[in-house]
Design goal:
Elements: H1 21-31, E1 38-39, H2 56-67, H3 81-92, H4 94-97, E2 102-108, H5 109-123, E3 128-133, H6 138-145, E4 149-154, H7 165-174, E5 180-184, H8 197-210, E6 213-218, H9 228-231, H10 233-240, E7 245-250, E8 262-268, H11 272-289, H12 296-307, H13 309-337, H14 346-349, E9 354-356, H15 361-371, E10 373-374, E11 380-382, H16 391-403
Parallel strand pairs: 1-10, 3-4, 3-5, 5-6, 6-7
Antiparallel strand pairs: 2-8, 7-8, 9-11
Helix pairs in contact: 2-12, 5-6, 8-10, 12-13, 13-16, 15-16
Cofactor: pyridoxal 5'-phosphate
Family: Belongs to the class-I pyridoxal-phosphate-dependent aminotransferase family.
Protein name: Aminotransferase class I/classII large domain-containing protein
């Protein structure tokens, strides 16, 4: 007597996951055949031809690598030593590095650094993460995926659109010890609204007193002030004052190496002995994660930082000056030419690639469906995608949806 078994898929327990808005926008944009479509969605620095801008320092480094092909062998599990050394200097400074308390690992972009940092913390028993909103959506999934719990608080006051300082201060004073606070170093995504040095010092004082753990995302270092060193001040100050910390680093923006996935994780411990243990655990975790990080972009960074640092610094200064010009130009369109109802001075006060415009999700949908202007439902506008060919198109569409 035979028994007929019901065939059930090995994957039948899986359910559809929440949509990824940025990926969906990219798909919709690719399908849109309108010649005047405007893409101000993803955080990429583009020129007037809508192509990703290649910094002169990167062009020069690529030419050198092309003439002296290093091949395609695996790198060390923790990464290319020269890369890690240069990246750590930029992240935490030579003074802290000389104390032998920094463990570094090359990662698959800044996202990989955040994932590895969160994984290390949860493996150490630190599972409670506090994140200011609005924020980069990926924090939630990468923290939950490694067993962490995400708690949200207001980074901006919904009414004033300014930093909700009292909210953060009260939270820092009341959360359990060893809670993790996820901070964006500069050019906050999506709000472009950063802490001042005085505010950072107050944050550091409370976190030090209460044994809290800073988790610093440095995705845009250099794009606030025009100086990598100046923008890295807060990380160095945390470390100088003796706090253990996680620093997640990316060269996607400040070298324009988006698809090369050039990142690093830096962990500052309280002693060289503990740092050695941390490094070994990072090695163990990364071996399972990727075994070996991508090499090409890292080699571009090594060449840029080792032999052409002054050119790289100039490229960043020029990029920030250009971003500020684009902000001023759009501000002029909205305030002087179109006289769009509202106060648009946040265009001038916010920093980095993004302008947190204040548009509603419905208004963003109108921009997409009626005007072929693509941006996320948060109202975040990437000013680095605006140029002489689309300023007026974007401003006119923006003006129309604001007027209703």
């Amino acid at each position: 007597m035979s028994t007929t078994l019901t065939k059930i898929s090995a994957f039948s327990h899986l359910r559809l996951q929440p949509a990824d808005e940025m990926n969906d926008l990219k798909v919709q944009l690719a399908r849109d055949t309108d010649p005047n479509k405007v893409n101000v969605s993803a955080g990429v620095y583009r020129g007037a031809d809508d192509k990703v801008i290649m910094f002169p320092v990167v062009k020069k480094a690529k030419e050198k690598l092309g003439a002296n092909d290093p091949g395609h062998d695996y790198t060390f599990c923790m990464g290319i030593p020269e890369y890690l050394n240069m990246a750590a200097k930029l992240a935490v400074g030579e003074e802290i590095l000389s104390e032998k308390k920094v463990a570094s690992c090359q990662t698959v972009g800044g996202t990989g650094a955040c994932h590895m940092g969160a994984k290390l913390l949860t493996a150490s028993g630190h599972t409670e993460f506090y994140v200011g909103t609005p924020t980069w959506p990926n924090y939630k999934s990468l923290i939950k995926e490694v067993g962490g719990n995400v708690h949200y608080y207001n980074h901006l006051d919904p009414a004033t659109k300014k930093i909700a300082w009292d909210v953060l201060m009260n939270l820092l004073k009341t959360v359990p010890e060893r809670s993790v606070f996820v901070f964006q170093l500069v050019c906050h995504n999506p709000t472009g609204t950063d802490y001042s040095k005085d505010q950072w010092l107050q944050i550091i004082e409370i976190m030090k007193m209460r044994n809290l753990i800073p988790f610093i995302d440095g995705a845009y270092q250099g794009f606030a002030s025009g100086s990598i060193e100046e923008d890295g001040w807060a990380t160095r100050e945390f470390a100088k004052q003796g706090l253990e910390l996680i620093m997640c680093q990316s060269f996607s923006k400040n070298l324009g190496l988006y698809s090369e996935r050039v990142g690093a994780l830096h962990v500052v411990s309280d002693s060289p002995e503990n740092s050695a243990v941390v490094a070994d655990n990072i090695r163990y975790l990364f071996r399972a994660e990727a075994s070996s990080a991508p090499a090409y972009g890292a080699r571009i960074m090594i060449e840029s930082a080792t032999n052409d640092m002054e050119l790289w610094k100039e490229d960043i200064r020029n990029a920030v000056a250009d971003l500020n010009y684009r902000r001023k130009t759009l501000h002029n369109y909205l305030t002087t030419e179109l006289k769009t109802p509202g106060n648009w001075d946040t265009l001038l006060s916010q920093k980095g690639l993004f302008w947190y415009s204040g548009l509603s999700a419905d208004q963003c949908a109108q921009l997409r469906d009626k005007h072929h202007v693509y941006l996320p439902s948060s109202g975040r506008v990437n000013v680095a995608c605006l140029n002489e060919s689309n300023f007026k198109l974007f401003a006119s569409a923006f003006d129309e949806v604001v007027r209703g």
